[in-house]
Design brief:
By secondary structure, this protein is low in regular secondary structure. The protein is built from two helices and five strands. This is PPIP5K1 protein.
């Protein structure tokens, strides 16, 4: 299999295979509790929340901040896409990958279904939602 690097100013998409779990929210939680939108229900739930934003502790793969920085600096990546809830691994703290990408004025696209895309050469359109007062 011939490997090739993405061209400059590309959207780099990471296919982890977790898009198959998008409809199974309880599998994304580390402890198997009843779903990410009810993190504080039940005995002991407070101990298993993300320390940064009181989010439930999630369990899914992500991209390290070092890899994100390399993609920005060495490959001039335009944006980072991933088929999980976040480019930061579910158990990570500090949202370092978010900071590495967004801090370099690049964009992030999450919760993608990448199963039907080729490994290279797809054309995508990424458009922001128009929100009053949001940065451009």
């Amino acid at each position: 299999m011939r490997r090739s690097w993405p061209t400059r100013r590309s959207l780099v998409c990471i296919r982890t295979g977790w898009s198959a779990r998008h409809r199974e929210a309880e599998r994304l939680l580390k402890d198997g509790s009843p779903g990410p939108w009810t993190p504080y229900h039940g005995k002991g739930a407070e101990e298993d929340v993300h320390p940064d934003y009181k989010l439930p502790r999630m369990h899914f793969p992500g991209v390290s901040a070092e890899v994100a920085e390399w993609l920005v600096q060495c490959r001039d990546m335009a944006g980072l896409g991933i088929d999980t809830l976040s480019p930061d691994a579910g158990a990570s703290e500090g949202f370092k990958t978010h900071h590495a990408v967004l801090g370099a004025d690049r964009y992030i696209v999450e919760n993608l279904n990448l199963e039907g895309l080729p490994a290279r050469g797809a054309t995508v359109t990424v458009a922001p939602t128009a929100l009053r007062g949001a940065p451009e």
